[in-house]
Amino acid sequence: MASDDLIDEELRRDSPEEGGKPDDRVDDERHDEENRLKPEFVRRVVDALEDGDKSEVYDLVEPLHPADVADLFELVGREDRSALAEAVSDLLSSEVISELNDYVREDMIDALPAYAVAEIAEQLETDDAVQLIEDLDPRDQAAVLAEMEPEDRAAIESALSYPEETAGRLMQREFVAVPEHITVGDLIDFLRDEASDPDALPTDFFEIFVVDPAHRPVGTCQLSWILRTPRHIGLTDVMKRDQTLIPVTADQEEVALMFQKYGLISAAVVDEAGRLVGQMTVDDVVHIISEEAGEDALLLSGAGDGDINEPILLTVRARLSWLVINLGTAMLAASVVSYFQDAIAKFALLAVLMPIVSGMGGNAGTQTLAVTVRALATNQLTSANTWRAIGRELTIASANGMALAILIGGGTALVFDNPLLGAVIGTAMIINNLTAGMAGIAVPVTLERLRIDPAVSSAVFVTTATDVMGFFSFLGLAVLTGLA
Amino acid sequence: MASDDLIDEELRRDSPEEGGKPDDRVDDERHDEENRLKPEFVRRVVDALEDGDKSEVYDLVEPLHPADVADLFELVGREDRSALAEAVSDLLSSEVISELNDYVREDMIDALPAYAVAEIAEQLETDDAVQLIEDLDPRDQAAVLAEMEPEDRAAIESALSYPEETAGRLMQREFVAVPEHITVGDLIDFLRDEASDPDALPTDFFEIFVVDPAHRPVGTCQLSWILRTPRHIGLTDVMKRDQTLIPVTADQEEVALMFQKYGLISAAVVDEAGRLVGQMTVDDVVHIISEEAGEDALLLSGAGDGDINEPILLTVRARLSWLVINLGTAMLAASVVSYFQDAIAKFALLAVLMPIVSGMGGNAGTQTLAVTVRALATNQLTSANTWRAIGRELTIASANGMALAILIGGGTALVFDNPLLGAVIGTAMIINNLTAGMAGIAVPVTLERLRIDPAVSSAVFVTTATDVMGFFSFLGLAVLTGLA
Asked: Which ranges in chain A are annotated with CATH 1.25.60.10?
């Protein structure tokens, strides 16, 4: 889409069906006060779908913003998605497709014939088209590609040749690049000329890349710098030479960190030879940032993808494999307890108190672990300050261990009128808090050095350490001191 | 800064000290392969600081990108920050300040006199200046504000009158707004004229807001649309009327969700009367998105802020208060065990196995909890699909409970040659997995309805439920079936 369509498109946007004032979006009959679709509205759509009343469905959905159409697909059940896609196929714009959850997009795409998918893909920018097609099974993918224009197909095939979650796969192949030694006026004239060819310019762009004859970036211009500079000034006098270039092989996590660190709106992607081959824009990176930052909580808990739209069998498999690993570690901890069965048979109060020691160690370890994983993910914890961070965690663990020891040790001594028992549980609490603090930072830092994602694997090791050490220190001290 | 400074600034950026080719940033003597500062480099700076060799420090820091200068402040110890700030005070540009961690910024600002802070604040855009000043204690804040130009002071005082983490506090007060019924040519001429006044235009802007005579937004133009449109076209023919407006009172989380949902680069902020009073840009929102998404893992674990630069006493207090609450729930669970002391004294194997049941329930509950909290935070789980999500979680809990029951029940029956014990632990495992699934979704959903942040408070309730139910179901069934 380029600017000869633009005016038409703007006029369409102005038309009353599009919703009029933006404030109408909030607190209307379709949205609640937090701008989410109301359940009653979703219910009406589902009822109309079940009645087979396609025109009612269409009338309901048509006034929605594309992002809300995408939300609607997520909110109706799986079983209703293909019927909904059929009823509103006209409204499935590129914005709807690019906003859809991956699994929901699959449900919807499966319901459409290859030529319809190809038609949608051709309207999209390459990055969104790739998202649409990459998860199809190879046969469907080939069928859709066969229906596409050769040029679009080539762009998508090129993207698919890069690994998932790399810049080469995620980048837009549409961007604006111009040679050095032209003036601001030349550039504006060029853009106005190109605007008459619908495919010549990307829908939106935020900077102009200046390239040398070998197509290597030499500088970049924010559009705002161009707009406020007189026509006769040379582009080389406006552009910034020092720019952040993204290698085509960069992982999405690296890309997200660069955008955050340097406050980028868009950035050039270069191939191995340093040639400009694409750009990444912040609106796509925002999704990556949110995903990467949010996945830590899910990975730490072993919930896998943690996507509520994931097919249930995949979810069961992901969570169960984690639970089975944890079952192994729980059995390891139980085997520590089994060494002390005689002591427990003599003095059953030990069995009452021992989960407190192991559980509190687990809680303290999880705290340190969550902090460490986040600090590693945001590059705040690097090899330059690892020792300082370890010292910090051990100090915190000592302070907390001592405080908890006084509380639980004092309480136990008083309630059971047994000062020795109080001393034993207090000491065990300190030992286990130090274990928690040490494991909570050493495990993720070590895994990171070994290039294993610390969010995925740390928790098993940390809770094993705190469970084993919790039982061992408490029961062991009880036996040593002759309590049982 | 506006464009008469612009060319000078670009020339400075071109100078060799600024790093030449951007690729030099990576794999040089200062950076490791992931673009983080090398520990050896940080060490050299600290050594020079300790030797009191300020000019060596300056020479080392001067070639760094502002974002790296900010990182350096975070990587040196607290004790070195004020000396570093003194040595490189020339290099403390607005970009450095805005990239600094909050606590590190405080350490640094504390070392500078009020006039120096005021001088830095005046170079900044309002939003960054507010960040610099908002955390100072009231007396220092007043001293800094007194040193500032009246106009800048008024802007900051106005921002401080809004609550923390709202759009009014976070927005930039610099933006470009023009009346309707001008042409693209008029707009470009206006921008070129304004560019000669350094304070007239924001440093960067990504859209032009079109306003009515009462200063209410009526439309918006992306800069790329303006650049490709002929001069004689009216702005109303290029602009988009349907735009996302942010109320000045909106919470930062809401703002972040809007930017993600609608793929915004910038957006207008309006006051209660609907007048344009500021803008928010995506580079600031990116930090909010990353923070909001990343904090769930920290909040779920009770690690508070989870910032490794937080003063250690604050960290101890935050974590300890969570641990003490958990100590209470652990004691509650222990009191369940204490009812079964006689059974345990008779059959100590129960004490060996019981932590497996409670622990596995805790793991399963944490999985469901992490998924639910994330789905709530991203508006994927709303009142429109709550029942479907609950059904989904209970299905998963049944499947996983069954699978784990077979593993642990079968294993126990075989190893201890006691089929009844196997049946008891298997049944308890199923009961506790269902408890975990139910609590893992019902607790956060209920808290969200009560407008309590589910990430902060859910974990206590969920682990209490799984601990209590784990011990009760296993030990209770053991007694009921006459095992002990």
From this structure: 3-162
